[in-house]
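Q: What would this chain look like folded?
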Amino acid sequence: MHGQLVNLQSSWSGPAAAAFQSLASEWRSTQQRVEENLAAINQALGAAGQQYADIEATNARMFAR
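A: My prediction, written as C-alpha cells:
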C-alpha cells in the first residue's frame, strides 16, 4: 500500500497533495506506534505465560511429595 501511495504522491501537486502528504506521514507514525505496542504486548504475554508455567511446575512439585 505504501508503494502505491508513493506513486500517487509523485504525480499529485497542490494543497490537497500537501494535506494528503501530512496525513500519510501521520498514518505511518501511528502505524509504527501500533507495531511497537503490539511487540510490547507480545513480550508481556510471553513473560506471563512463562510465569504461569513456572507456578504450575512449582504447584505440581508440592503435590508430588
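The helical segments are 2-10, 15-64.
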